[in-house]
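Students often ask why we bother predicting the structure of a whole assembly rather than each chain alone. The short answer is interfaces. A chain on its own may look different once its partners are present, and contacts between molecules only exist in the joint model. In this exercise we take three input lines together and write out one structure for the complete complex. Read the inputs first and try to guess which parts will touch.
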Amino acid sequence: MKKQIYDLVIKDGRVIDPALGFGHVAHLFIKDGKIAKIENDNISSRKKIDSMPDENVIDAAGKIVMPGLIDMHVHLREPGREDEETIVSGCQAAAAGGFTTVCCMPNTDPAIDNQETVKFVLSRAELADARVYVVGAVSKMLKGEELSEIGDLVKAGAVAISDDGGYVQNPQLMRNALEYASMFNIPIISHAEDDFLCKDGVMNESFQSTRLGMKGRPAVGEVIAVLRDIKLCELVGGRLHIAHVSTAGAVEAIRLAKADCVDVTAEVCPQHFCLTDDMIGEKFDTNLRVNPPIRTKADIDAIIKGLVDGTIDCIASDHAPHAEEEKDVEFDQAPPGMIGLQTTVGLVKTYLIDKGYLSWADAIRKMTQNPARILNLPVGTLKVDSPADITIIDSDKKWTVKKNDFRSKSKNSPFVGWKLSGKVSHTILGGRVVYDGK
Amino acid sequence: MPKDKIETVLDKKGINRAITRISHEILERNNGAESLVIIGILTRGADIAKRIASKIKEIESVDIPVGLMDINLYRDDVHQKLDQPIIQRTEIHFDVVDRNLILVDDVLYTGRTIRAALDQIVDFGRPRSIQLAVIIDRGHRELPIRPDYVGKNIPTSKDDRVMVKLSERDEDDSVLIEKSGLKADEKTPAKMKDGVKKTAAKPQKRKGGKTK
Amino acid sequence: MKLQSRHLIGLEGVSADEISLILDTAVSFREIIERPIKKVPTLRGITVLNLFYEPSTRTKISFELAEKRLSADSITFTKAMSSVKKGETLKDTVRNIEAMKINMVVVRHGSSGVPYFLTQCMDSNIINAGDGSHEHPTQALLDMFTIRQKYGKLKGLRVVLIGDVKHSRVVRSNIWGLKTMGCSVAVCGPSTLQPYEVEKFGVDVYTDLDEALDGADVVNIMRIQLERQQSGFLATQREYTNLFGVTAERLKLLNKNYTVMHPGPMNRGVEITPEIADGKSSVILEQVTNGQAVRMAVLYLLSGKREDGE
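Now the answer. The structure tokens for the assembled complex follow.
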């Protein structure tokens, strides 16, 4: 018998790779865990496919084949809260959500502020169903007081630094961090919310917080924080990435900064283009508590505009697992955060693509090429010889978000019961099928 | 199912005669009006109480204190209903202690309303006696209660509706009975409904009600 | 007429007919309080739990008395907030207590939304006795009862709510209720203690007390919590009193037959002068008495509405 030339072929799918500028029906051949070639449908490619055993052929007819998606903002909770999520379970959720690469934030216990913890996370991720890149801490124990050993972190594999979960309150420390990190050419990911303005706030400050008598987190708390970081970045250089932009003001600030050639990039999360603060009063669902908070229709409109005009570079989930017993409490006592790895693709399709704001290529770019560029990752493209990380999406498939379908150890999603369009059908990591829709 | 029939049991004159007679009986039995107080059960019992008081004033030229009482808070079926009956204001601005208290209602039926009223009166003090006056006694008692003064005893089936209309709140004075179409024997007991006295049982022999 | 919900979470969304039903029923209960035996057997067999996660004197006593006067069995459970964080969750606490077969829960809690939360994890009827800065419906109902008692109506009256609007659940419930009943409502207080977009409640917003009082019928003065100074909302007590303290001199701006209210506890000499608090236009003690009647009415009206529709 003739030796197999290819390990796997994905046939007849509409292949979209913004990095290659590719966007039509083709066959994708995989060998040794890498992309071997992309071929148009013709007699020769058809022949190759026909010669392969059925189990090595994925029929993607009518589906979209794209580079494995990158979620540059997740919390995997390990080490420290393995009851909420582990690196393995988080990566299973990623696979089921179409993500082949995730970047985990350092607010674990202990925090990822040292080489050993970076190495620990990477070792745990070796056999997981997704690639894990580590974001290290800006400050020791995320306290915002002293810089962590950023050089060491980078040496161990960290691709960015962040004190995510909180803002680097001290502007001098942030300035130093930007300067220091620029030596290693990594971005600082800023969770931009001013502590003094947002202290104890549990939801967006608006008439809704007034009506419900809840302490608000004003939009201006984000805008001021974003502006400060932009000004520092402008002053000292370095690369700034604004995480989970939630306000119209922040979008505008970033737009202007980009026009001024400040090296700033930004991401948004589905909750900030799908959810509004008036939903909180309906059931006081603690799964709607998240920082930064879900805002208003006007903010959503501005975020969508930012996505469309390129002000917002990336879409990430800010997947933040929390134990059920910690969320099943009074609204203001619940920890902020929601899971998102398995709902992001559906929400992007339903709320951005179906509504005509983004094309599939635009959306894919914000979840592949752009995060890969910002974090300098060797993934996010179907270029020949790249790792065979591939996501196949059944673009028009309608599905309902079900709690039991979450592979995350935590189920804290406000989207349970939502009807979405666009379902991941296969996720392939390094040529290995890690999710096949079942 | 045959149509329900409505019959008039008492007309305006009949009601007036009944009230006049009851007033005389009250005075006779209590040796005048000195010791009397009257409490009417809301809504129509209270109207009748006021009429009796003014009739007694006509006869004896004495003002008898009249009180109004809502008995819903003392009902024994208050939690068996999906919606609570509306509570009207009880107004008893006099002392009941050591008085002969005439309790007035429009229709005496199961006796549960009167039981509730008796409990409530006791919470206001200890009258020398409590006497019960009603315009209609329709039978079907479920408690050992009997009236002292009755306008008219009428035999009813439990499914019949007895309606007392008074000009204070209705177009005119009358007592009507709406006979249910079915034969009484075929009925199954129905629940007593608030405000409308209605239930089911055999066509009754009258009992209880003291008549003259 | 009946109540739509089997719980009383707040006055937002409660119709004028429903509020009228509660107030009318309370009139009947108000009379019971004046009887020699201040007790009716109505709620015999009903067990009410008073769940107080925040300190309270008058609301707690008022509910307890209302329950006893209706012959309900009542128990009161108070728990300091500090011990809640660790240990048993609120949900576990209430479920355990409900397993002892209670029928109604009166709850006060520092977190907005807790009464709603309880409706989701218990079968009992839930009555909100104050949640965070959200609502305090029975206080607003008793305020409206007291106003109606004096004027015979609510519609068309001008009511001014003075003080810490931002943190006051009493203000919020009053706004919803009074607006529904056709009052014209104004709020007045330092701009730091006015919540964001407060005007969206449909009220007139003032930071000048004299302007706010001009032409008002009822002035309802909220307690100012002196610890607000530390959070930077206020400068000094002295300045607050100068700007927002209600004095006899200022009340001249009100309509002739004006009424002074205060939900208590009062800081005499701070937000209200003793002269006003004890003056002939003050109905502050009447509010307290009426509170019982209103709470009896609420307990009575809700007690008939069970989960199983029984």
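Check your guess against this: Chain B touches chain C at residues 70, 72-75, 78-84, 86-91, 119-120, 123-125 (CB under 8 Å).
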